[in-house]
Every structure is written in structure tokens, then in C-alpha cells.
Amino acid sequence: MHFHLSLPVAVAFAPAALMLATMLLAMLASRATALARSRLWAAMNALSLLALALALVGIFLPGAASLSPWFAVTALGGAVAVLVQFLGLVIGVFSARYLEGEAAQARFVAALAGVLAAVHTLLIADHWLPLIGAWALVGVALQPLLCFYPDRPFALLASHKKRLADRLADALLLAAASLAWWSVGSGSLTELMQQVETQGAGPALQASAVLLVLAVVMRLALLPVHGWLIQVMEAPTPVSALLHAGVVNLGGFVLIRFAPLLEQAPLARGLLVALGLGTAVLAGLVMLTRISIKVRLAWSTVAQMGFLALECGLGLYTLAALHLIGHSLYKAHAFLAASSAVRYTRLQALHEPRKPLAISLWLAPLVAVGVVLGLQMAISPGAWPLWWGLILGLAWAPLLWLPTTTSPNEGHALRLAMSGLVMVAGLTGATLLAHALPLNLQDAPHHALGAVALAGMAALYLFLVLLHTRPNALEAWRRRSYAGFYLDEHYTRLTLWLWPTRWTTDQPPSYSPQPLPLTPTKLSD
Q1: Rounded CA gap, 168 and 153, in Å?
Q2: Among 122, 147, 140, which Cα is nearest to 72's?
Q3: For residues 280 and 481, what is the distance between their CA atoms, to the nearest angstrom?
Q4: What is the pLDDT of residue 519?
Q5: Rounded distance between C-alpha atoms, residue 483 and residue 200, angstroms
Q6: What single string gives the DSSP state of each residue in 25-57?
Q7: Quick one: how far is CA 230 from the chain centroid?
Q8: What separation, in Å, do the N-terminal and C-terminal C-alpha atoms of the chain show?
Q9: How many angstroms separate the CA atoms of 401 and 356, rounded?
Q10: Is 182 exposed, middle or buried (0-12, 13-18, 19+ CB in 10 A)?
Q11: What is the DSSP letter of 127?
């Protein structure tokens, strides 16, 4: 009987324990022989596969809701644990080939396993202390990965900027925890949510919610603290995949975890909407001006994290959870398949660029909104508010843009239009079906903030239309957009003023040519 009672607890902690064991194994392998190091990747991938299997079992295992006073399993936490471990396994398999021949592979494995172990701990945390500690350890374990090539100055600068953002986030989280602990009389998150739902949130808890939001903004890399996420492109591609697909998204999970508290804190929700909407709009504009594929993917992540924060501020927690999962899978594939993206971009460059047909720029949002709202009414009328259907229609309208052609071809234009309609309908249907997943989340839409979000997305779409129809009139905006509106430059100066550091290296080049002799020399016999 005791075995059955302890089984859910063992399964819930198993992924973190296995990744911790992998980290210790890698630390020992760094001092072992070359043969032992060569077997390290196989050991890590085997343990990752076992951790993934146990994470899957944990979803369906009854009796694992409350593990201890400090830990608990939620439906969303279990789903994200499976997602993170799956991505960890894929990244591990990819890295074994990608880093072949690198001298610091054992250090990479140890850091990767350490990140996964800390993430698993955060996902089951039901107390302020393990939550704050696990999130801090994620950043600590990530540092060796960000600085995997220590001779790259921008990698060192990005790592330092992230370190400062992490420490500020830790301080804000500690302040939020202190206020909540003092108000509730306990550090338990479950007790906090119960008190909020029964008694509401007083001034101390509302202040705690605001501090929590500010801490999450630091971790989500929203503007203006986003620069480190762009500059970590200096790290190996598997690190970018891990960071963009499985680490940055944790801020969204924490916001959803604290949903009952956010619903009682209007100022905190307003901050999320303002910062999330501003980040989504500005980062989306910057992404359009960049050429480098990896940099565009990084700016895309910043915009998506802004959109994720916006969804949480609007009270659409189910959609935020689906966005988190979908973005993780997409970004992992995008970074790990970056070479294919480069090939596709080069092939596209061989064709003459075509501007969108002017009339399609104005008709596309009307058609997209009609498809979204029509399918919503037919499948699940109460899935989300009307204003969110309008936002989705604006977001997916570019799929319906038609290119201008020098020789009219009605058949080609019709095929493009139909394919765009199929994509919009498919995205809408998939979102509606995924919305019915049993994640045990209760949405709390805020209609006034929803109107603000709709106005912001409409302004972004209007800017895109003007960018295609009146490009010369927006030339100054294009230059500012390409520079990221100079926000990161100011944050970098502030970082180096608050926490000075040396981020350039004096390491000599790997090859130093010898000077030629000034006098002829004889050849010896």
C-alpha cells in the first residue's frame, strides 16, 4: 500500500532527478578518458528518453496532484514537462552531431542537463521558495551554454545583460513572495490561490502581483530588456533552440500559474497588456527589416513573448497555454532546421520580389475575420470573445495577400487565394480544437483591455499596409525599426553602469604566423 502511495511522487520527481544524474555524470566524464567522453551523449540521450517516458506516465497517473507542502502537479505543468523533456531529447540528439569534435562537449551536456533539471523543478513547485530557487538555477545553468565560445565578445555581453536581468527578477520575486507570505501567512501557492478566490486580494497582494509581473517581464525578455535574447545568437544553434523554445516561455507558465492573483490585480493586468502589446508591435516591426535568418527568428521570439504576455493580461489563459506549447515546437524546429531556411531564402532570392496586390491588403482582414468568426460560431461559440476573433483575423490576414503579376493568370491567383483560405481555416480549426484540451484553466476575459489590444493590432496592420503602399513615406521609421528603436543601446549602457564588467577578450588568435626572415638562410644537408 505504501508503494502505491509513493509511486506518483517518485514519477513526478523522476525527470528532474534523471537530468540531475546526467549533469553529475557529465561533470565526471570531463575528467575521464576520451572513450568515456564519447559515450556521454549516448548516456544522456538514453536518460532523456527515460525521463520523457516517465513524464508521460505522470500525466495519466492518479493521485499526484499534491506531492508535498512544497510541490504539486498540475495539468498544464505535466503537459509542459513532457514538452520540455521532448525538446531536451531532440536537442540532445541534434547536439551530439552538431558539436562533434568540440573540446567542451562534457561541459555542454552538464549545462543542458542542469537547465532541464531546474525547469522540471519549477514546473512542480507549489511554494515560493522552490519556484524562485529553480528559476534562478535555470539562469545559472544556462550561463555556460551562452558563453560556450568564450572568445566572442557579444556572447559575453549578452550573458552579462541576462545575468543582470535575472538578478533583478530574483529581487522582484523575493519582494513579491514576502508580501504574499505576509498577507497569507504561508508560502504555499495553493493556499495563496485559495485565499484570493475566497477573500479577494488586498493592497499587499495586489502589490505582490505587480512585482511578479515586473519579474516575469525581465524573464520573458520583453522590451526594453530584450537585447540579450538577440545577441545570444553567438551561441551554438542548439542553445538558441533550447533558449527560445523551452526557457524563455517559462514566464508564460508562471503567469498562468498565478492567474487567480492576476485577476484580482487590475494594475498588474494593465502592465501586462501595455508591455506585451508594445513588445509585440515594436518587435514585429523590427523583424520585418532584418535580413539574418537567426536574428529574425530571435526578434520573432521577442514579439511572440509579447503576445503571450498580452494573452495573460487579457485573461485568455487557455490560449496562452496553447500559444506556449505551439511556439516551443515551432521555434525548436525553426532553429534546428535553420540551414534549410537559409537554402529556401537563397532560392527565393533568385526570383523577382513581388509586392502584394493593393486590393488584397484591404480585403484580406475582412475575409480572414469572416472565416475565423464563422468557424467559431459553428464549432465553439464561447471559445473566446468577439474582439479576440477580430485580433486573430488581423494576425492571419497576410496569409491571404495576393502578389502582383506582370501577366494576369486567374488560375494561379485563384490557387493562391484558396490556399490562403485553407491555412486560415486550418489555423482557426486547430485553435478551436486545442482549446478543448483538458488543461483545467479558467479564462477571465477583460473586455476593456481587449478593446485596447484590438486597437493596437489594427494599428500594426495599418502600418504594414502603408509599408507596402507608401514605403518612401516611412523611410525614417524603417531606419529606426532596423535599429530596434535604439532601446537596447540604452539598456546596455544602463547595464554596464549598474554592473561594470569586461566583455571583450585579449585571447590571441589560434594561429600566429611567424615573421619571415630578413636574410636568406642555407638549407642544411
Answers
A1: 23
A2: 122
A3: 13
A4: 40
A5: 44
A6: HHHHHTTS-HHHHHTHHHHHHHHHHHHHHHHHH
A7: 12
A8: 88
A9: 6
A10: exposed
A11: B
Interacting residues of 187 by C-beta distance below 8 A, sequence separation 6+: 127, 128, 129, 177, 180, 181
At 185, give phi and psi (nearest 5°).
Answer: 90, 10
The 3-state DSSP class for residue 101 equals: coil
C-alpha 87, offset from chain centre = 13
Q: Is there a contact between 212 and 176 (Cβ–Cβ < 8 Å)?
A: yes
Q: Are 284 and 276 in contact (CB under 8 A)?
A: no
CA-to-CA separations, 80 to 52, 234, 267, 310, 505, in angstroms, rounded: 11, 27, 28, 20, 39
Q: How many residues does the chain have?
A: 525
The closest of 155, 137, 154 to 146, measured between CA atoms, is 155
Of 490, 493, 439, 485, give the one whose Cα is nearest residue 318: 439
Residue 473's pLDDT is: 73
Judged by DSSP in three states, 147 sits in coil
Q: 118 is written with which cell numbers?
A: 531546474
Angle between helices 128-146 and 153-184 (to 10 degrees): 180
Q: Residue 66 — φ and ψ, nearest 5°? A: -120, 110
Contact 262, 192 (CB under 8 A): no
Question: What is the C-alpha to C-alpha distance for residues 205 and 182, in angstroms, rounded to an integer?
Answer: 9
Q: Which portions of the chain are predicted below pLDDT 50?
A: 1-5, 406, 508-525
d(CA 51, CA 86) in angstroms, rounded, equals: 9
Q: What is the CA radius of gyration of the chain?
A: 25
Give the integer Cα–Cα distance in Å for 165 and 170.
9
* Contact residues for 214 (Cβ-Cβ < 8 A; gap 6+): 172, 271
| CA pair distance 233, 312, nearest whole angstrom | 28
